[in-house]
Design goal:
By secondary structure, the protein is mostly helical. The protein is built from 2 helices and no strands.
């Protein structure tokens, strides 16, 4: 049972890190869009930022719920 608990904890951490990396990449694209006055880069940056935040929220809320299934 401790294996599943540690595996779920590790999975949660990995998903949050992936979401944070995507959000950081979105912030970089957003700032690049503002610097070059490029609306396409701004739009892509906002989309990546929101997607990264969504993935991080899934990692924080839904994945720990898996421990109650085992």
């Amino acid at each position: 049972m401790s294996f599943f608990t540690s595996a779920i904890s590790t999975l949660s951490t990995l998903v949050v890190l992936i979401g944070a990396a995507l959000a950081a990449w979105g912030v970089i694209n957003l700032m690049e869009g503002y610097g070059n006055d490029n609306p396409g880069a701004k739009s892509q940056g906002v989309k990546q930022l929101m997607a990264g935040a969504g993935i991080a929220i899934v990692g924080l809320t839904l994945i720990p719920m898996l421990s109650s299934m085992f």
